[in-house]
Design goal:
Family: Belongs to the binding-protein-dependent transport system permease family.
Structural class: mainly alpha
Membrane topology: Multi-pass membrane protein
Pfam families: BPD_transp_1 (PF00528)
Number of helices: 13
Largest sheet: 2 strands, antiparallel
Domain ABC transmembrane type-1: 112-307
Distance between the termini: 54 Å
Order of helices and strands: HHHEEHHHHHHHHHH
Oligomer: single chain
Strand content: under 5%
Strand order of the largest sheet: 1-2
Number of strands: 2
Helix content: 55-70%
Region (Disordered): 1-22
């Protein structure tokens, strides 16, 4: 009888018999996401694509703000003449001007750029830290897992805006304020969310057969986490990312409204503009409040619809499939039959027919 000898030491990742499984684990999550998006229908499809369109318009406006905006965010004069103070919308200033003689349209467009910068940095920072800590905690467990769970639960118990304010005070003393400081303040809020979701997925995935096989054949923990666990837990992250992106815009506006966000001389920010426009509303100057607030609502709505659409599409428990559209093999397809269509048992009377 032929015998098979297993290697006694650690093996290279590409040399494992489970290399095909590793490759599928790396790309399987992405394939499942793209397949689910293509097969979306009904209300989830409408929310997904509506949110995607609004989000794309927001991103395009933010990226090309210098080309779209008629002036810079801090410009108050042109051609040697100051802009009118609190001027109403007209042909020269479509959205009017503020009490500081700033063009509302330009500040609204540049506010999208600031929101995008802070949002991207906050999501990237929290994504890297949250996913990394969740993978390590879920895979190794033990005392490290207990400490991280305690810390993340403590952070999660704080109201998110209060936590962002406290973090803003801490980071402002280190970096001196600005976009990076605002992003770091918001990052602290979202790390526990990524950590909890990724840790739960890692706890489940580490008991899978292919992970146990990789460990038994000598794969290092870093290889197992990178090649086997990461691809199976990352499919839960896109939904959280889009929802956090929407929430980050609101959190940044809240910090700016309280005067704890980005300084007005560094960038345009919707929350700061809304705070400065409170007195204008009482004086009947509605334009300084309407356009920044409307831009913020539309941006948050776009990311929210995108996140909810992704959640409905990717979450199997949220899908509603009609039985008539489900394709099943012939030997597993259910058929509805009547009692008259079934054969009677030999010697059975009419009342004893099989139902």
């Amino acid at each position: 009888m032929a015998t098979t000898t297993l290697p006694t030491g650690p093996i290279e990742p590409d040399a494992t018999p489970a290399a095909g499984t590793a490759a599928s684990s790396r790309f399987g999550g992405l394939r499942r996401i793209t397949t689910a998006v293509r097969e979306a229908h009904g209300v989830p499809k409408f929310m997904l694509w509506t949110g995607a369109v609004i989000t794309a318009l927001f991103v395009i406006t933010a990226v090309f703000a210098p080309l779209i905006a008629p002036y810079s965010f801090d410009t108050y004069r042109a051609g040697g003449t100051n802009f009118p103070k609190q001027g109403s919308p007209d042909g020269d200033h479509w959205f009017g001007t503020t009490v500081q003689s700033l063009d509302v349209l330009s500040r609204t467009i540049y506010g999208a750029r600031t929101a995008l910068e802070v949002m991207v940095l906050a999501v990237i920072f929290s994504l890297i830290l949250g996913v990394l800590l969740g993978l390590v905690s879920g895979y190794f467990g033990g005392w490290l897992d207990r400490i991280l769970v305690l810390v993340m639960d403590a952070l999660f118990a704080f109201p998110y805006l209060l936590l962002a304010i406290v973090a803003g005070f801490v980071f402002s003393g280190v970096s001196g304020g600005g976009v990076v400081t605002a992003a770091l303040s918001i990052t602290v809020v979202y790390i526990p969310q990524y950590y909890r979701v990724v840790r739960a997925s890692a706890l489940s995935a580490r008991e899978a057969t292919f992970v146990e096989a990789a460990r038994a054949m000598g794969a290092k923990p870093s290889v197992v986490i990178r090649k086997y666990l990461f691809g199976n837990v990352i499919q839960s992250v896109p939904v959280i990312t889009t929802m956090n992106a929407a929430d980050a815009i609101g959190t940044l506006a809240g910090l700016g409204f309280l005067g704890l966000g980005i300084q007005p001389t560094e960038a345009a920010e919707w929350g700061y503009d809304l705070e400065r426009a409170i007195d204008d509303v009482n004086a009947g100057m509605w334009w300084t409040t309407l356009y920044p607030g409307l831009a913020m609502v539309i941006a948050i709505l776009g990311f929210t619809l995108l996140g909810e659409g992704l959640n409905d599409v990717l979450n199997p428990t949220m899908r509603r499939r009609r039985l008539g559209k489900v394709l099943l093999p012939d030997h597993t397809r259910r058929r509805t039959v009547t009692a008259s269509a079934l054969p009677e048992a030999p010697g059975a009377t009419e009342g004893e027919a099989v139902k």
